[in-house]
Write a structure and sequence with these properties.
mainly alpha, Fumarate Reductase Iron-sulfur Protein, Chain B, domain 2, 2 domains, binds iron/sulfur cluster
């Protein structure tokens, strides 16, 4: 029997939804949405489910992930029910639903929990450095750079990186498995041929790399470009830190055109442009997307911005031979970076980088399976 929770739309307010009760089911929002299709028709359906409290149908739906929040539907809604913001709130709700630890729900619904976790993880990093840091040498390298690897040997930091990456992968993948159970194993009447999981895999990879569906939104071109810059910058830095730290954290100061520096500069540029663009948008509130920021949106942006800023300062302190400033900035940088990755990747905003392409992949698998069943 299907569970009905009449308080559901009220409880969604904690996830950032505005009042959706004025919705009178006209369907304008679905008609205007350039991403809505016959197979995946939204956002009107999600409004009905939310108003009726049909939580299970929402939990087993991919539709909230197929919306890229262009805001067209909210602009045209005659009742100002703000369907675009509801889709955003449902994505937060779904992140909490997939997460078996319950931490995502705590972080999305309690500022104290989120701030407390950030502070706790930052203090762990501080304590590790207070106890285990290497000598604070003021001797410089032949090129005039700081001997950072004496203070924080890269091979020791790398072990920490791998442990962290292991945690992130475990939480994120187990939550993706939960998502699979809710979406693909929910309807027992649909038989999914095993081969579809392989033939549709390409859509997962393509959408993870390009997020190409954003371009199909009426106003999505600039947003897509900024999003791509930000995401590629993040992926490059994450890969260098977790995969190639020995190549990335060197005492040698290479020429500016060396691939190590060029990749670092590109990634920093992408992160900085993305952060500034989204900061300005959220402050000006000139687009639907930015009108209703949830506190977790701000937390994410602030953490990402300070990670980038401290990374830039660290780089310049290191290459211009300022040892103490470099050591302090290195610790501060990790005190921001570590909580950002540990909280945002598996439990909060950054998790959409995984959930969105996975949802598109699941949707393709499901729709193909339905087609095969009909024929
Ligand atoms: S959200 Fe607005 S546009 Fe969409 S069905 Fe409800 S009233 Fe109509
Ligand atoms: S915000 Fe844009 S993509 Fe999302 S449901 Fe509304 S019109 Fe569609």
């Amino acid at each position: 029997m299907e569970k009905i929770d009449l308080e559901f739309s009220k409880s969604l307010k904690k996830y950032g939804a505005v009042d959706i009760s004025p919705c009178f089911n006209c369907g304008n929002c679905t008609a205007i949405c350039s991403l809505s299709t016959e197979d995946n028709s939204f956002p009107r359906k999600m409004l009905r489910y939310s108003i009726l409290g049909l939580q299970d149908r929402i939990s087993s739906s991919v539709d909230p992930w197929l919306c890229y929040y262009c805001g067209e539907c909210s602009e045209t809604c005659p009742k100002e029910a703000n369907p675009g913001e509801l889709m955003m709130a449902l994505r937060r709700f779904l992140v909490a639903q997939y997460d078996w630890t319950g931490l995502a729900r705590k972080f999305y619904t309690s500022k104290i929990w989120e701030m407390g976790a950030i502070l706790f993880l930052a203090l762990i990093i501080l304590a590790i450095f207070v106890v285990f840091h290497g000598p604070l040498t003021t001797e410089l390298t032949a090129e005039g750079g700081v001997k950072l690897n004496t203070f924080a040997p890269w091979h020791q930091i790398h072990i920490g990186d791998w442990i962290m990456a292991g945690f992130l992968a475990f939480f994120l993948l187990s939550n993706v498995f939960n998502m699979y159970l809710k979406i693909l194993r929910n309807d027992k009447k649909i038989k999914i041929p095993f081969r579809l999981y392989f033939t549709e895999l390409i859509s997962l990879v393509r959408n993870f790399i390009t997020q190409e569906r954003i371009k199909d939104c009426e106003k999505g071109k600039v947003y897509w470009l900024i999003h791509l810059l930000l995401m590629s910058g993040y992926v490059i830095l994450f890969t260098m830190i977790v995969g190639f730290l020995g190549w990335f954290q060197t005492d040698n100061i290479y020429e500016w055109w060396h691939p190590q520096r060029l990749l670092g500069y590109y990634a920093t540029f992408g992160l900085l442009v993305g952060c500034v663009y989204f900061f300005i948008g959220r402050i000006k509130k000139d687009k639907e997307l930015n009108k209703h920021s949830h506190y977790t949106d701000w937390t994410f942006l602030v953490l990402l911005f300070f990670t980038t800023l401290t990374g830039i300062l660290l780089h310049f302190f290191r290459i211009y031979g300022m040892p103490m400033a470099t050591y302090y900035m290195y610790v501060i940088h990790l005190m921001v970076l570590f909580p950002m990755l540990m909280i945002e990747v598996p439990f909060s905003k950054w998790s959409h980088l995984a959930y969105r392409p996975v949802a598109i992949y699941f949707s393709n698998v499901l729709n193909k399976a339905k087609e095969l069943q009909k024929s």
